[in-house]
Amino acid sequence: MPSNAEAMAQTLAQRGVRFAFGLPGGEIVAFIDACRQAGLQFLLTGHESSAAWMAQVVGQMTGVPGLCVATLGPGSTNLVTGVANALLDRAPMLAVTAQIPSGVIHTMTHQRLPLDRLFSAVTKGSFSVGEEDAVEIVERGMDLAAAPRPGPVHIALPSDLAVQEYAMRQEPRPASMAQQDCAVTVDDIAARLNASERPLILIGLAAKPAVRVLIDKLQSPFLVTPKAKGMASEDHPLFAGVASGMAIDKEIVETIRSADLILGVGFDPVECDKTWFADVAVVAIDTASMAEGDYRPLEAIGDLDSMLVELVARIASPRPWPPELIEGRRAAIQRTPLASAAGLSPLRLIEELRSVFPRDGIVTCDVGSHKLVMGQFWRCYEPGTFLMSNGLSGMGFGIPAAIAAQLVAPEKPVLAVVGDGGMLMMVHDLALIRELALPVIIVVLSDRSLSLIRVSAERRGFPPYGVDFNPPDFARIAQAFGIASQRATSVRAARACMETALAKRIPFLLEVPIDYREYYDLV
């Protein structure tokens, strides 16, 4: 008979899990070895937060919950930020951690933490092997993680129970909760749309590509949230920008307020850093209710693809905006890059890199001022080609996300755009990139400052204290890891480096000095 750890790993493999990301510890090695035996590839990361972010992106891209693994005590606490990120980015994940042996947990205080309480706050559920059937916990955890709204689930595995022989319990598995019928129907949403004059489509993180048919039928402008970039092509003549909290946000909110009705498709307010959504007329279709606090949209809940088909069929006629209004709102999201001798314009660099990066390539973006500019101005054309931490906005996301994206889509080019602060946090991930020879391209925007905090502090009347630093030579650091690199001081040189890395399909780090002063006009 298999052990509990082996039974759990076999179940994960049967459910389609391919990778386990994490760091070993004495108390979790039995589970890691069980993963090996079950055919799961264990990938050693330099920090548990990287493991959680990688697991999140795998879950987000595949729909199968990603798996991260850590030992008890500090291993578990190091996972928390990445697990919380998956909660607010609505990504399916399973986090398995060790725990004190069940036989001595009430006596042994060394490295003992109440992991159920710790993870309950940042997951959809926290369970412990021993309290329930080990396989049942995995099955239920996988289902719960993938169910709307998707998110992380935590499982604690006491080290003594990990090696104990698995004994299936006879209790019947509790039936899953059926989704309650929603009082609001697609007919109700269609009626509001047919009565409106200037509806605006707001495409959110739960949306599906079928939303493009809705745009064609309604002929109204649309916005996307950062997590939905590419769900509808951003070179579409009705594209009106990215909402919200990105660069030039005032212009985007003005576009929203120009509408007499907002149609949310998979829209989740977790992506918004302000509460404008509670002050405008919103109707929504989604997989789960997003009503919370003062936000009370008229919402129909169910299968999004089916509801989109129904809604398109019930739209009486197109609802285009006056040409001068839509042209004005589209013009409002255009910006001219800054001319400066102190460093390159972030906006110009982003636009130039976008011009040579393949349309269907995947870009990951870290957190910082550049995130706001990337979110607004990096144009996306295909679903799943832009990955960003937005609900939690956790700095350090960019490089682990790129590693996971390259593992899931090895045939596609993958680019990570990070700031120098985020690069300092995740430089250890270069070891895994080199070990796996992943052709990830990393662009480090170096402005020698935590510029997003600098801008925020100065706008609040505070001096920019504690935000500036002297970054290392990241190009030389990459070389020390065995990764090709270069420092480019012109847009032309940066573009040439990108073209070379894309052609050679090699891991590559490009460091570019930029002028953070442009951010004052954009963020």
CATH architectural group of the largest domain:
3-Layer(aba) Sandwich
CATH H level, superfamily name of the largest domain: Thiamin diphosphate (ThDP)-binding fold, Pyr/PP domains
Count of structural domains:
3
What structural class is derived from the secondary structure elements? alpha/beta
Strand arrangement within the widest β-sheet reads: 2-1-3-4-6-5
Poorly predicted sequence stretches spanning 5 or more consecutive residues: none
Helix content: 25-40%
Rg:
24 Å
How would the global form be characterised?
globular
What is the overall number of helices? 21
Largest sheet: 6 strands, parallel
The overall average pLDDT, rounded, is 94
Q: In angstroms, what separates the terminal alpha carbons?
A: 59 Å
Estimated share of beta-strand residues: 15-25%
Which fold name corresponds to the CATH topology of the largest domain? Rossmann fold
Quick synopsis:
38% of the residues lie in helices and 16% in strands. It is of the alpha/beta class and 523 residues long. Strand 3 (66-70), helix 4 (74-88) and strand 4 form a beta-alpha-beta unit.
Question: In words, what does this structure look like?
Answer:
By secondary structure, the protein is α/β, with parallel strands linked by helices. It has three domains: 4-162, 3-Layer(aba) Sandwich (Rossmann fold), CATH 3.40.50.970; 186-331, TPP-binding domain (Rossmann fold); 346-522, Thiamin diphosphate (ThDP)-binding fold, Pyr/PP domains (Rossmann fold). The chain is 38% helix and 16% strand. The chain contains 21 helices and 18 strands. The protein has helices at 4-14, 29-38, 48-62, 74-88, 115-120, 134-146, 159-162, 186-195, 211-218, 249-257, 304-314, 323-331, 346-356, 369-377, 398-408, 420-426, 430-436, 451-459, 474-480, 491-504, 519-522, and strands at 19-22, 41-44, 66-70, 93-99, 126-128, 152-158, 199-203, 222-224, 239-242, 261-265, 282-286, 298-301, 362-365, 386-388, 414-419, 440-446, 484-487, 508-513.
